Recover the amino acids of this structure.
């Protein structure tokens, strides 16, 4: 994103994205709770796509009658972003929280590569600094006992693939800026819902059987509440950010989710959180803050 076209609410959007990323760092909690409540087979992920979609259908119909975009015009963005979130959500059911978070959030690397290929945009000098900080943090957390941070099970691979899809969707939104946030929000839930159905079918041997009717009835109030209070508002911020602050900054800021996710997993589960996790998370957070700082300094020099 060029400095001349920088959004007037750049810092507000960046801070809102930081908060949304932090909230998504807690997403593993309801995801596992829903599975414990009987929504096995990845159906918790499917329902969290379908229910917001159904809530938004009347608005899309109203917009269509007024000649406005309903959101179905953005299938590629919806499939990429929705697919990325579906992979992310289901990875928590198949691997450790910290492993899923870190493999998913190698996103800045993919974003930088995609920008070089599709936007013909070479990274700024400070991008190397932030990438080194972020990836060093990833290595410190994930590289315990000299382990190379590569996928080791199906959940790891799904998390990694999800990060690639998210990076691709962010760059796509920077290339083709949607007409407002609502169309891509609806596209995300519609096409993402289709993706989750296909994914659940392909991974049925890993994710387990379909839930019972009693499980659906018991969990439905929670699913509706999660849709209204979490999925729709946080995705308004997340989906609206890339085209306004740039895919690169977007992919750095959302790394904050690793910090919140790692700490919450350590507090609420038996997963390890020692000095490695503390130092690694601090470096990842520093990468996000330094990206914002360096970008601001670069803008001041250009003006």
């Amino acid at each position: 994103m060029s400095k001349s076209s920088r959004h007037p609410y750049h810092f507000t959007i960046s801070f809102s994205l930081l908060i949304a990323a932090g909230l998504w760092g807690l997403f593993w909690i309801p995801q596992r709770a829903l599975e414990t409540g009987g929504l096995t087979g990845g159906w918790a992920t499917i329902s969290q796509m379908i229910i917001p979609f159904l809530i938004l259908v009347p608005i899309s119909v109203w917009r269509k009658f007024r000649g406005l975009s309903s959101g179905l015009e953005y299938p590629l963005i919806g499939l990429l972003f929705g697919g990325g979130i579906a992979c992310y959500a289901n990875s928590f059911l198949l691997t450790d929280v910290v492993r899923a978070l870190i493999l998913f959030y190698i996103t800045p690397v993919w974003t930088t590569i995609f920008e070089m290929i599709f936007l013909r945009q070479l990274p700024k000098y400070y991008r190397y600094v932030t990438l080194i900080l972020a990836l060093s943090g990833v290595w410190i957390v994930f590289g315990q006992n000299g382990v190379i941070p590569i996928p080791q099970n199906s959940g790891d691979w799904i998390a990694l693939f999800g990060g690639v899809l998210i990076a691709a969707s962010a760059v796509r939104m920077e290339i083709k800026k949607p007409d407002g946030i609502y169309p891509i929000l609806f596209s995300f839930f519609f096409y993402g819902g289709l993706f989750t159905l296909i994914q659940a079918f392909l991974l049925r041997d890993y994710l387990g059987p379909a839930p019972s009717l009693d499980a659906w009835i018991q969990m439905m109030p929670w699913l509706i509440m999660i849709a209204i209070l979490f999925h729709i508002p946080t995705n308004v911020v997340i989906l609206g950010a890339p085209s306004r602050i740039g895919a690169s900054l977007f992919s750095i800021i959302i790394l904050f989710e690793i910090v919140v996710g790692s700490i919450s997993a350590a507090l609420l589960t038996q997963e390890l959180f020692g000095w490695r996790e503390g130092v690694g998370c601090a470096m990842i957070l520093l990468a996000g803050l330094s990206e914002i700082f360096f970008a601001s300094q670069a803008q001041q020099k250009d003006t």
